[in-house]
Amino acid sequence: MDAYIPQVGTHISDLETPCLIVELDALENNFKVVAETYKNTNCKMREHTKNTKSPLLAKMQMSFGGTNEGVCTAKVAEAEIMVQGGVTDILIPNQVVTLDKIERVCALAKQGDLKLCVDSIQNVETISQVASKEGVQIGLLIEVDTAMGRAGVRSPDQGVSIAKAIDQLDGVSFRGVMSHQNVEEDKTPEGRYLRAKETIDICLAVKDAIEAAGYPVEIVSTGETFCYDIAANIPGVTEVEGGSYALMSTSYSYLTEFQIAGKVLGTVVSKPTPQTAIGDIGSLSLAAPAGIIPTFDGDDVQVDSIHDDHIVLRTKDNNLNVGDHFKLLPGHQDMLVNRWDKYVAVRNDIVEEVWDIPGRGCYH
Question: Which of 186, 217, 247 lies at the terminal end of a domain, its last residue?
Fold first, then answer.
């Protein structure tokens, strides 16, 4: 069955549900915030498209300004979608280690500027062998573990060793360093600043060591949505890998300058008690990692529980009836978007456009 595609001009009350909607005024606000933040800075936004999974939306941010005209993608398959959509400056801020995927990256490098992140000499050597065979040049950034406990070098010396190895091999070029971090409990402006500064400084220490060893560092790709405004003004940072800011979610509610653009529209299908309403949105159309459940868009209604195809809502004022539409505000957008084929873009409750989500489900 084809994906649901409502006609332009349809009122939101006539949409079939559940339905992933994007409120255009909110989306444009978020793009404008980023454009204004990076308007007069050396550092620019490199939007992480794991949030939107859409070349169209990536290019929309570029049209608003504030970017370096490039994007991040979590996977090779997502990079392929971006290139197909006309976005050709791509950083994959993860390790790509298997021969088949490195070959796919090399194919993309014939169409644009492809960059990978590495944290081992073995990976560098494999990429070099494949890239040399294919006659392309792959840019490499050294990932630095600053907070996540995942991939990345753990010391400046490790970074210097890898930079030296890259410099001695064909088919690869050393481009810079990259890191990712998250915010902890203190999400005040002061807390965000301290967290961003202490973690990004770890990445900058690797940069400084590599430069001291005689290898110029072109790119320092770091930061994310929680510190988009802070990282932009830390000397040495050249680009920020923001993603969640585009559609936003309740987990970033402390960033009040942004608005939640991506929402799930549902319908009340049952009213078992005056204070209980059952909606047609369930876990199959939502995502709630680590208990980050969605929030009802409105007052005096709480999300009680989520089932496969239903949600239980508790109300105080008997203000939901069978047939009523309602919106849910997601706590996490990346996983939510991955469950849908289309965005239904609305303004003032009227459908203006319907957009494909070609990057969804790109696991391989």
Answer: 247
